[in-house]
Amino acid sequence: MEDGRRLRILHCFRSPVGGIFRHVRDLAEAHSGAGHEVGILCDSITGGSFEDKLFDSIRPYLSLGLHRLAIKRSVGPADIATAMKTYKEIKELQPDVLHGHGAKGGAYVRLIGSRLRVSQSRVARFYSPHGGSLHYTRATARGQAYFAIERFLERWTDSLVFVSDYERRVYAEKIGVPTCASRLIYNGLRAEEFDPVGANGEAADFLYIGMMRDLKGPDVFIAAFRRAEQIAGRPLSAVMVGDGDDKPRYQARIDKLGLDRRITMHDAMPARAAFALARHVVVPSRAESMPYIVLEAIAAGKPLIATDVGGIPEIMGAGSAALVEPGNAEALAVAMARSLAEPAWLAAAMPDREDFRHRFSVTTMAREMLTLYRESLSGAPAAAAAASASSLS
């Protein structure tokens, strides 16, 4: 195909929240700006007013439209009806590229894309796990079932797209070395996100920002905050920003521990607005792939303490002093208390700013993704599958 051909690109994912939604918005804006036609298909029952505002901001870049259907998180009979509706929506759009994000989005685009190919469509099918089913283990029947499905769907995949080397390694360990092509493309940030964000006049000591669910570690943050106060020998302050079904449980825990005047809860807001609310950022996740919040915090010049999980060491540097063991509230508390007592210690543990900016930019991410799309449509990745497999074995 001609290298300059305008592509019709459709992104499909379930939940329009968090890192996946951010990743898709950045790709949509960049590729639309390059002259391609872009659309989004996602769940209609997830998200709130904050996500509605994000949709409004991205609509001008969606020439293929925004299509929302009810897509449940768990696998069940409802998926059959949803898949049929999704097929009709996608068929009418006639995309060149179907890019699925997360387990549900990945399954839909590969099944539907393959069905469209039977009708002589040349659509290319891509899948970015973004963690997804990789969070499960082989020790559970559900994990084994999901891994078997992922393996089966490889035969209908033009390329896997990993956002971290960690994610690529875990995929190989749990599902197997990919039998299709695969590519590592890091998440990226916009130029303006590298402008520093200072703390406001009433800034708290620490900020937690993210989904309110145990996987992201809000409970560990609360426990570590309480212990950090004991280590520091004085009251501290913190802000927790985010939404999620478990948010009332965390608020109840804060109230029970008598921390309600020192830890304040806020609804989800733009990351840079949240960064101004505190002097330090804490990411206490139990599992991650390549979290945007870590990228955004470092780009904004915020001293950050994070857990040594997923792709975070690829951002911070393996062995960084700012990394602690996941789920270890004591280790996190020690680091939090030290960041207050020795500010220069944490600042010195942050990545080199110029190198960081070079590696994690939206421009690089969008260019590499578009190159992959074009290679797949021209048939080039057929030979790349063997190279991908050898690099992971």
Descriptive overview:
This is Glycosyltransferase involved in cell wall biosynthesis. GO terms for molecular function: glycosyltransferase activity. Keywords: Transferase. InterPro entries: Glyco_trans_1, Glyco_trans_4-like_N. The protein is an alpha/beta fold. The protein folds into two domains: 213 residues, Glycogen Phosphorylase B (Rossmann fold); 167 residues, Rossmann fold. Helices cover 46% and strands 16% of the residues. It is built from 16 helices and 13 strands. The protein has a seven-stranded parallel sheet with strand order 3-2-1-4-5-6-7, sandwiched between helices. Strands 10-9-8-11-12-13 form a six-stranded parallel sheet, sandwiched between helices. Strand 4, helix 4 and strand 5 form a beta-alpha-beta unit. Helix 1 packs across helix 15 and helix 7 crosses helix 12. The radius of gyration is 21 Å and the shape is globular. The protein starts with 7 loop residues before the first strand and ends with a helix. The C terminus is likely disordered.
